[in-house]
Amino acid sequence: MTSLSIATPNRRPFDTSPAARAAILLAGGTLSLMAVVAMARGALGLSPTLARTHDVAVWIHLGSVLPALPLGLYVLLARKGDARHRMLGKLWAVLMVIAALSALALRDLNHGQFSFIHIFVPVTLIGLWRAIATARAGRIDTHRKVMVGLYLTGLIGAGSFAFLPGRVMGTWLFG
Fold first, then answer.
1. C-alpha span between 149 and 21 (Å, rounded)
2. What phi and psi values does residue 166 have, to the nearest 5 degrees?
3. Helix H segments across the chain?
4. What does the DSSP 8-state code read for residue 111?
5. Which of 34, 43, 56, 83 has the most CB atoms at less than 10 Å from its CB?
6. Average pLDDT per run of 10 along the chain, which is 175 residues long?
């Protein structure tokens, strides 16, 4: 009698190609580093102060997005399927819901109206719902694809716009 080794895809460190893994690491790592430098410059008074930095919604949004960047990167690249993965994934999802909902209050750059960047709010909320539903249904491959897409669009894509001129992170980073 021989024993068969049954592969458990949800236990592998990462189920995506090395090129995709490198791209996610580069994008997430770069944006995380930019955020740390911007926050340090802002905290040390090395960049201009914007009136909107006194808005509670800005701090709630930054307080949820900034830890979600490296946490999401870790969850995507670390071992999958264990209790730690599920716990950190739930924490990341909560941070993303807070980030999406707090973004609805950030409209001062568009005269009180929603701007094109607000499209990421429903994209994030629907993506999170889909990711949770597919994981609970046992469709882990779809769950993985949705989570990678959500990280790249909801954090990297939307986060890139935060560094444009006139936005808080852009002003803190570039002065």
1. 12
2. 90, -15
3. 18-43, 56-77, 83-103, 120-136, 140-150, 158-161, 168-174
4. T
5. 34
6. 45 66 93 94 88 85 95 93 95 97 86 88 96 95 94 93 89 91
